[in-house]
Design goal:
Residues 277-346 are annotated as: Disordered. Residues 311-322 have a biased composition (Low complexity). Keywords: Cell membrane, Chaperone, Membrane, Protein transport, Transmembrane, Transmembrane helix, Transport. With 346 residues, the chain is mainly α. Helix content is 60%, strand content 1%. The protein has 13 helices and 2 strands, in the order H-H-H-H-H-H-H-E-E-H-H-H-H-H-H. The chain has a two-stranded antiparallel ribbon with strand order 1-2. Helix 1 packs across helix 2 and helix 1 packs across helix 5 (98-124). The relative contact order is 0.08.
Length: 346
């Protein structure tokens, strides 16, 4: 029913397999099929990289809108219908598209489901590979040939079959050409590294945010910091080694991608100069004599300041302050008053 998903994923996987055959790797070797799965992941993630950038912008846009959203929630807390209408109006006004933030995650699900189905098909085809007289179509599904199906079904990574699972019995693992103890060790190492990459990615996402979440959002982020790596550890119980290899490569890619975003596309709030940096650049160097500001200049710039027409006139230095008696200049007494005519008659 989902052949339209299984066939393209199998075709990309086989193209990488043919390329590694051309460079000299054993066509039935585990290294060849392991690299084919790894480069299948890299192909998918490269195609989704631009959408991931849009997802980052979506998350940052969502953070900048939080104050307005909180105001709407507080204002229309008793009218949820009106609150939804106001939020949609705000999103349209800001040109906000929630689908762009979820699209990369949704587009990875079909690849994951298709690869899981193809690997389970290869695992179930092992018994048919040991029947030379079998001429059915089960060994030639999804653009695979009979030799490619049987070679991938018995491919191993460090002695563990790629089609094997942790819940398989020892007999099932032996049919796939491996040993159960070796397969358990390889799967545990792989899921531990995957969980570590997921935990590191969560820390990098938190480090890239200029503001820390508060209240319920902070609690959710703290839970996700530990629940997602624990979910990765739990996946080792249910999925084949080939799917875990896909997961390991995808988580490692996500961690490197987040490092790239934090370094080359930091949040705009993190690019502003920290407080005090401007004052440090204007402070005099050790041993340097302080420079006095000239009349008509400021202490920060040496360019003369042109007085504005609207600015009030600057009072002269010797002008008396309001309420102050005018000061006489030294050795300059006011001239004696001339005697009036009445004093002369006396």
């Amino acid at each position: 029913m989902l052949n339209f998903l299984y066939t393209p994923v199998s075709w990309v996987l086989l193209q990488w397999h043919h390329l590694f055959n051309a460079v000299g790797l054993d066509k039935n070797g585990g290294l060849n099929w392991t690299l084919s799965i790894v480069f299948l992941v890299i192909t998918a993630r490269l195609l989704l990289f631009r959408l991931f950038i849009k997802q980052v912008k979506y998350q940052r846009h969502m953070q900048t809108m939080q104050p307005e959203i909180q105001k709407l929630r507080k204002k229309y807390k008793d009218d949820r219908a009106e609150m939804q209408r106001q939020m949609m109006a705000l999103q349209q006004e800001q040109g906000f598209n929630p689908l762009s933030g979820c699209l990369p995650m949704f587009l990875q699900f079909p690849i994951f489901i298709a690869l899981y189905h193809v690997l389970r098909h290869l695992s179930n085809s092992v018994l048919l590979c040991h029947q030379p007289s079998y001429d059915g179509k089960l060994l030639t599904l999804y653009t695979f040939t009979r030799n490619e199906t049987c070679g991938a079904a018995q491919a191993k990574l460090f002695g563990a079959p790629l089609a094997g699972r942790l819940t398989d019995t020892a007999d099932q693992v032996n049919v796939l050409g491996g040993e159960r103890g070796v397969m358990i060790g390889v799967i545990l190492v792989l899921v531990l590294i995957s969980a570590g990459a997921t935990f590191t990615t969560q820390l990098l996402v938190r480090a890239g945010n200029p503001t820390q979440a508060e209240g319920t959002a902070a609690t959710v982020q703290k839970l996700m910091l530990y629940l997602i790596p624990l979910g990765t550890l739990g996946s080792g119980l249910f999925f084949p080694l080939g799917v875990l290899l896909y997961w390991f490569t995808s988580n490692t890619w996500t961690m490197a991608q987040q490092l790239y975003i934090n370094k080359y596309h930091p949040h705009e709030g993190l690019t502003a100069a920290p407080a005090g940096e401007l004052g440090k650049t204007l402070a005099p160097k050790p041993g340097q004599r302080p420079q006095r500001a000239r009349p008509g200049t400021t202490s920060l710039t040496k360019e003369p300041v042109e007085p504005s027409e609207d600015a009030p006139a600057t009072p002269a230095r010797n002008a008396p302050r309001p309420g102050q008696r005018p000061q006489r200049q030294a050795n300059k007494r006011p001239p004696a008053k001339r005697p009036t005519q009445a004093k002369k008659r006396r």
